[in-house]
Every structure is written in C-alpha cells, then in structure tokens.
Amino acid sequence: MNNPLKYFAELRDPRVERTREHLLEEILLMTIAAVLSGAGSWNEIEGYGKAKRLWFKGFLKLPGGIPSHDTFNRVISGLDPAELEEGFAAWVSSIAKLTAGEVVAIDGKALCGTRELGKSTLVHMVSAWASANNLVLAQRKVDDKSNEITAIPKLLAALELSGSVVTVDAMGCQRSIAEKIISKKADYILAVKENQANLLAEIKDSFQMLAVDGVKEEIDCGHGRVERRRCSVIADLSLLENASAWASLQGLVRIESERYHKATGKTEREIRYYITSLGPDAARLNQAIRNHWSIENKLHWALDVSFGEDLDRKRAGNAAQNFSILNRIALNMLRQDKICKLGIKGKRLQAGWDNDYLLQLLGN
Hints:
The protein is an alpha+beta fold. The protein is 40% helix and 20% strand.
C-alpha cells in the first residue's frame, strides 16, 4: 500500500509558527494509525498515542511528546478540507486502477451526529465508490443551503473516469451532470424519479407502447430471501420530447424486482427506471445497476457500523468533514489489505494489537 502521508505534504498548517509544539505530519500519522486501530474520538486518539508512545518514538521525532486531545482536535479541525480532499484524491489515484467498464457509484451520506440541538442542518458528504477496486475515490461536502446537485459536478471534476460507468441516484439525474460525465469520457446510468416528472412519464409511456430491445432476468437466493430481477431496455427514444438535451443518451432502462422473504412469507415488488448512455445490453445494465448498491453495503454501512460515523458528534470547525476523510483513508487501507482475512472491525482490532500489521497497512 502506498503511504498516503506524502500526498499531504503541501497541507498548510493551521497553527501560527510559535505554537507548533508538534509536527503536523506526525499528528496526521498518529491520527490515521489511531483510527486504523479503532479510535473514534479525540480522547481515544490521545490515549492511543500515549499507549503507543515508545513504539512511535522508534520512528517519529515527537518534539513535544504525544499531543493532547485538544491539540488533535484543534489541528485536524483547522486543516483546509479542500486541501485534504485534494491530497486524498491524489493518493487514491495512485493505488486505484479503474478497469474498462468499472462502475463508479456516486451517492450522498448525511453525518447525523453533526446536527446541533434545535437545528435542522447537518454535514452531508457525497462520495465516489469504485465497485471493482473496493475504494472510495473521492468525496465532497454538500454546501450549506444547497444539495447534491451542486456537489456532484465538483466531485466528478476531481476524478479520472475514462472508460468507467458512472451510476447516480435520482438527485443526480440532471442534464448538466450527464454532460459532465460524458466530458470525462465515461458513460452514465442515472436513476429517474419524480424529481424529473415529465421524463419519468415519458419513460413509462415508452415501456407501454414500444418494443424492448433487450431483457435479462436473474434470480438470487441468499440472506433469507429470494430475489428476482428483470432488466428491460429500449433504444427507441422517439417518445422523449427532449432526448437530444441529454448528452449521448442511448437507452431507457426498467428494473422490475420481486423479493420473497422466507421468514415472513411476504413478497415485495418494486419498479425503477433509468436513462443511460450505454447501448441496449440488458445483462450489462442489470449488473451495473446492481453494482451501484455496493456504495451502500461496502462504504456507508461499513462507516456506520465499523467506524460509528453516524453517531459521531464532531462539530467544531471542519472537524466532521476532515475526520470523514480520515475514516475513508482508513477504510481504503483496510479494504485493500488481502493478507488478514478478518472483517473491517476485526482488522481494526488486529491493527491495534499488532504493530507489524499496522505498519503494513500504513505502507511503511
């Protein structure tokens, strides 16, 4: 694993020079090591540093000893999140090699613990997830009083997407976003819901009145349920009033899913619609749409369950945004490790117990 710290070498230190008792690069390294080992709060990071002080002294200068929890908080919260995100994206691009046709899923996640008492606002992050690489590629914060529509183009601009297939939920079903994806030499599959009411109605009419160009059905058994998925695709865009307004639009997609739950005997049915710049290959489209949900299962779920991100109450300065980047650095490191066969939680425990394993994760 390529050590990420060199990609943060240009970070501006938020402290005035006379108060720099600890080296910025050492604060970052100790914080990442602590997060890899299971720490989630500033107090836990300080405690971890003190417990590992002799080990850290073997390769760090530690001019001021182990920083206090207030120092960890103040320094990490004071970093410029744009600079931190830029370094994160540069590090990921050095280890991620997108394969032709790889699905890059774009989706947002609210950090629920950042909502202050009596207020409705909270920190909302949009991430890009490479399904085959099992990596978070980059992330961007949704600006206050805005939504994902403004954050997604900024996220796309930071990514190398040539040859990939970008999947985005209904919030990102915008002409400007489709055009941005095509300009990055990638293809798109965009979910269509009521926020594009006219387009949705035209797609439904198309599936009622036109012949389909491809169908693929799959049955999957597992986790106590039986799921049947039927993907249908239409290349005829004649019933879309403004088809040419969508960059490189080639097809309309319908996913019909039926889930039978063995424990309850209940059956759930759902129909979803998409537009795509890909040709009418129902099997490929079915798989790509299914791969989109790996961002929920392998990223958002892991961050909430293994990292406790949804319960994290860091609010000062840029604390929540910057710490979310550190969590994603740690998750990428753990996902890329192929030697330890444990889950994410088990790997974090192993990193806390085994210094050699931790060094392996850090790339030292």
